[in-house]
Amino acid sequence: xxxxxxxxxxxxxxxxxxxxxxxxxxxxxxxxxxxxxxxxxxxxxxxxxxxxxxxxxxxxxxxxxxxxxxxxxxxxxxxxxxxxxxxxxxxxxxxxxxxxxxxxxxxxxxxxxxxxxxxxxxxxxxxxxxxxxxxxxxxxxxxxxxxxxxxxxxxxxxxxxxxxxxxxxxxxxxxxxxxxxxxxxxxxxxxxxxxxxxxxxxxxxxxxxxxxxxxxxxxxxxxxxxxxxxxxxxxxxx
Length: 238
Known about the structure:
The longest helix has 14 residues, at 191-204. The chain is of the alpha+beta class. The chain contains six helices and eleven strands.
């Protein structure tokens, strides 16, 4: 019920061992993206290899090749879709959600770190001075699942672009920035609170942690929470 093709930009089959885009036809292919006709038109196209059953071809964006042994090998992505903690994320979708915030003029998102410790970092050009990370997170929760919400936010004066006008992600990490401040929060008051705040700072790379902040809002995830509990117990916190 599923047919897989490795095709070039003109939807022609590529030779064995040559990379191309993985395209899919079959009953599993949907009618398109919900409320996104432009993206639907790009990714759901007439199937030039239709045998009368599967008229629609889905362009997955995965770069693949057929090995000499006949195995399908996935080699990467042709777009800005990335995987963080097992979830596939479209960077442009996160950027669109950020730019819907009235205090953000422009946004660009990167995935930083390796493997299970990858996290999303957002660079934003503010439209006004009053902007906090907590305010941004609250706004994003209305449109994005938790795994798509960036762990850190940076204020930049401009977003670097390529000659074609697209975000230059290779240059983005080197742009000077200022950290977006958190929602005002009280400092740790007791010895236990100070120890726990220090553990959070080490795990999350945070400069400062207040007692009213959420572990997950400032970059934590389920894996880091397990490490946090382990470190807290070693420090004598029960």
